[in-house]
Design a protein that fits this description.
mainly alpha, elongated
């Protein structure tokens, strides 16, 4: 996705969080919107760090880079406002705790995904080995039957 589309998702999440704050909704009640905002901002940050674009987008390199920069700047502003509100309500230690927990959860998720991928590769390798063994056994059995037929079949 392009940064402007991701920014639109971030804005929607941000507006939902702002609306929730305005009506006195607790932060934990807005976890889905907050998570979406954090994910969108992280995605925009990755794109802005390496704005490749697409040859089929019809946009110039400058346009792609400017869109990525503008989206990141706006996303950073939204996150700064959210951070200030959060710190005002819960304190800086709580904000640091949320960031540390987010980082740890992402590390755990990446590790779990890598482990699942390794397990899938091992299972596939076991399946291939079993199929090769079965094919070899069938070939050996066919050769043995052919040899018996040749020796005793006449």
């Amino acid at each position: 996705m392009d940064p402007l589309t991701i920014l639109a998702v971030a804005k929607a999440s941000y507006e939902a969080v702002k609306a929730g704050i305005a009506v006195g909704k607790e932060m934990h009640g807005m976890a889905k919107d907050l998570g979406s905002l954090f994910d969108s901002v992280a995605h925009i940050t990755r794109i802005a760090a390496d704005p490749k674009g697409s040859f089929t987008s019809g946009k110039s390199a400058q346009q792609i880079a400017m869109e990525a920069y503008a989206a990141k700047a706006e996303a950073d502003q939204m996150m700064e406002e959210l951070k200030n509100h959060f710190i005002g309500e819960f304190g800086i230690a709580a904000w640091d705790q949320v960031l540390a927990a987010t980082t740890q959860i992402k590390k755990d998720q990446r590790a779990a995904a890598l482990q699942a991928q390794r397990e899938q590769e091992e299972m596939m390798q076991g399946f291939v080995t079993a199929m090769l063994f079965l094919a070899g056994a069938v070939a050996f059995l066919m050769m043995f039957i052919s040899m018996l037929y040749f020796v005793f079949g006449r």
